[in-house]
Amino acid sequence: MNQSMSIGKISQWRPNNITLKPLEDQVIVITGASSGIGLTTARMAAAKGAKVVVAARNEDALQELVDELREKGYAAAWVKADVGREADVNKIAETAIEEFGRFDTWVNNAGVAIFGHAMDVSNEDIKRMFDTNFWGVVYGSKIAVNHFRERGVPGALINVGSLFGDRGTVIQSTYAPSKFAVHGWTESIRMELEKKKAPVSVTLIHPGRIDTPYNEHATSYMEKQPAHRGMIYPPKAVAEAILYSAENPKRDMYIGSQAKALELFGTLLPRITDKLMELVMYPTQHVDRPSKPREESALHQAGYGMHERGTNKGWIRSCSIYVKACKRPILSTVAVTGIGLAAWACAKRKD
């Protein structure tokens, strides 16, 4: 009980009394903005009055998105970029500064996935995934931090992780380490920046299973097509967490109680969690149709764009109650305490 209470208190992190601008006064950079979470976040941010700079590899989708936003009277710019290339990430920042003179929030959202047993996945594919999922975050983080320091105006760096960045899994066993790296990087630089009193709020987003084209874009070494099955959250729940963190310094934001529960159970009951993952994850990461060829995936090339949702099967929630609770400190602490007590009770029964 004491441990779960302390976790709830830690989540109410406030770095160096930083105050962030309201969204309507912000310029927000979003990578991976051509589909899924990034696309939803860009549309939501623009609707709330922010100027948006969207980046991805799919040039046609970006042009379509910016045209859509401008037709509604919103300020937007796009830049074709592969975040696995440092020069491309530099170009994103340059575009934001050329178009709007600055940026106030940088969202490292771009990501790719691989489904397959770790021993079967080629090293070339793993390295390419790390270029996007980890190195893209490193490049973006450094640019954002330097920009906020040079301006001397507080800004938000928001890195999108995963529930599998808190706990390993099967089948996505090469994807999970890339997100572990993102989580470790984010936590480490957060402490260093806080120690140096840098004007940067650093937030780590922990999405659960989200209904996006993530699985359709993934490279699959499986016979059947990757897909989420079970309880799934809408991309707007992640966008809500991202944009809340753009205005309010937050250490972590979990999308769905499943993400927080997996972290807690994995910490308190690691062996039971191993067995549970081995049992549950195999049948819930595919649908009953053949996988598309690996060369058609979005690992080494741009995937299709302008789709917020995927073709997942299960209970697709309309929102994340946990995200809404996290926006209210008392409710957040109560929610985390409840999950912690459940894990503690399981541990006691095991003993």
From TrEMBL:
Oxidoreductase as UniProt keyword: yes
InterPro entries found in the cross-reference section: NAD(P)-bd_dom_sf, SDR_fam
Coiled-coil segments on the chain, per record: none
Domain of life: Bacteria
Protein name: SDR family oxidoreductase
NCBIfam families in the cross-refs: PRK07109.1
Signal peptide location: none
Entry similarity comment: Belongs to the short-chain dehydrogenases/reductases (SDR) family.
Keywords: Oxidoreductase
Metal-binding recorded as keyword: no
